[in-house]
C-alpha cells in the first residue's frame, strides 16, 4: 500500500513539473503579447473603426459608413496622384538598389585588402539620419548654390543653373537617387551575408572546370541568392509604398514648406495621409481610410512581387 502511495505521489509530482514546464513559456511571453495587443493590434482595429466615422479628434464621432472610402476613391484626385508618384519612385529606385547592391557586394566579397573599409563606407549612408540626408540633397541640387549646378557650369555642360527641384520628373528622380544612396549599404550587407553562406567548394569545382568569373557569378552566385533577392524585392515594395522621409525632408525641410513639391510630383500616399490628418485639417476618419486603402495596395503589390519573382522557382 505504501508503495502505491509513493508511486501516486511521484506521478503527481511529475505531472506538476510537466504542467509547470508548459506554463512558464507562456508566462514569459505574456508581457510581449500584452504590449503587442495594447500598442499595436488594438490601434489597427481602432483605426479601421475610425475610418468609418467622421471625427476631428475632439468632438463626437459621426458614423458615415464607407463614405470616407468613396470620397477617397472617387472625389480626391490627389490620392491617385500620390499613389502614382509613390509607385513611380519605387520603380525608379528598387531595381537599381537590387542590381547595385548585388554588384557592390560581389566586388567587396572578392577583395583581399580593405574589405572592412569599403563595407563601412558603403553602409554609413544607411545609418545617417534622414534629416541630414534631406539637408545634403537640398544643398546639392539648389539652383543657386548647389554643387551639381556649379560643377556642370564649370565643365561647360550648362550655361546657367537648372531648377532641379522645381521640375516634376527631376524631383522624382532626385528622390529615387536619395533612396538608392541611403539603402545601398543595407542591400550590400544582405547580399554579402548570402555570399558568405555559399559553400566555397562550389566555386573551387567551377574553377577546376574552367568556368570564368562571369559564368561563376551568373550560374552559381545569382541562383543561390534567389531567395535573398525575393526577400529584398518584397520588402523594398512594402517600404517603397510607405515612402515619406525623403520627399518630406527635401521639400518641407530646411528652406520652405512646400507640400508635394512641384505640381505635387513628390507627394506620396503617406505624406498625403499626414497632411490630411494632422496639417491641413484634423480629419482622423479620412486619414484612417487613406491608411487602410494603402494597406490593401501594399498587400496586392507584395503578393504580385512575390509571385513574379518566386513563381518560376515554385513551378520548377
TrEMBL record:
Sequence ranges assigned to domain ABC transmembrane type-1 in this UniProt record: 83-305
Organism superkingdom: Bacteria
UniProt subcellular location: Cell membrane
CDD domains linked: TM_PBP2
UniProt xrefs under Pfam families: BPD_transp_1
Transmembrane segments: 23-45, 83-109, 121-141, 173-193, 224-244, 284-306
Keywords: Cell membrane, Membrane, Transmembrane, Transmembrane helix, Transport
Membrane topology value: Multi-pass membrane protein
Family to which the UniProt record says this protein belongs: Belongs to the binding-protein-dependent transport system permease family.
PANTHER family reported for this sequence: ABC TRANSPORTER PERMEASE PROTEIN (PTHR30193), INNER MEMBRANE ABC TRANSPORTER PERMEASE PROTEIN YCJO (PTHR30193:SF37)
Protein name in the entry: ABC transporter permease subunit
Species lineage: Bacteria, Bacillati, Bacillota, Bacilli, Bacillales
Amino acid at each position: 500500500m505504501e508503495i502505491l502511495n509513493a508511486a501516486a505521489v511521484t506521478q503527481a509530482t511529475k505531472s506538476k513539473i510537466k504542467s509547470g514546464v508548459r506554463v512558464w513559456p507562456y508566462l514569459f511571453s505574456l508581457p510581449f503579447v500584452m504590449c503587442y495587443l495594447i500598442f499595436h493590434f488594438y490601434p489597427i482595429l481602432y483605426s479601421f473603426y475610425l475610418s468609418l466615422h467622421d471625427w476631428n479628434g475632439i468632438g463626437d464621432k459621426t458614423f458615415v459608413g464607407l463614405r470616407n472610402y468613396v470620397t477617397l476613391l472617387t472625389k480626391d484626385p490627389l490620392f491617385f496622384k500620390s499613389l502614382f508618384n509613390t509607385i513611380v519612385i519605387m520603380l525608379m529606385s528598387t531595381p537599381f538598389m537590387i542590381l547595385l547592391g548585388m554588384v557592390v557586394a560581389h566586388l567587396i566579397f572578392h577583395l583581399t585588402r580593405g574589405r572592412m573599409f569599403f563595407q563601412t563606407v558603403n553602409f554609413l549612408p544607411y545609418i545617417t539620419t534622414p534629416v541630414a540626408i534631406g539637408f545634403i540633397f537640398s544643398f546639392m541640387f539648389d539652383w543657386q548654390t548647389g554643387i551639381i549646378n556649379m560643377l556642370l557650369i564649370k565643365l561647360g555642360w550648362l550655361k546657367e543653373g537648372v531648377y532641379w527641384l522645381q521640375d516634376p520628373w527631376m524631383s522624382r528622380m532626385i528622390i529615387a537617387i536619395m533612396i538608392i544612396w541611403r539603402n545601398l549599404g543595407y542591400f550590400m550587407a544582405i547580399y554579402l551575408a548570402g555570399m558568405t553562406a555559399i559553400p566555397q567548394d562550389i566555386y573551387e569545382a567551377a574553377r577546376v572546370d574552367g568556368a570564368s568569373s562571369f559564368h561563376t557569378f551568373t550560374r552559381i552566385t545569382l541562383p543561390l541568392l534567389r531567395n535573398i533577392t525575393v526577400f529584398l524585392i518584397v520588402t523594398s515594395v512594402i517600404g517603397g509604398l510607405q515612402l515619406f522621409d525623403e520627399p518630406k525632408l527635401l521639400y518641407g525641410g530646411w528652406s520652405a514648406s512646400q507640400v508635394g513639391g512641384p505640381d505635387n510630383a513628390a507627394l506620396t500616399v503617406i505624406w498625403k495621409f499626414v497632411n490630411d490628418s494632422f496639417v491641413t485639417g484634423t480629419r482622423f476618419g479620412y486619414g484612417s481610410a487613406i491608411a487602410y486603402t494603402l494597406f490593401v495596395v501594399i498587400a496586392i503589390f507584395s503578393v504580385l512581387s512575390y509571385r513574379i519573382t518566386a513563381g518560376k522557382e515554385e513551378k520548377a
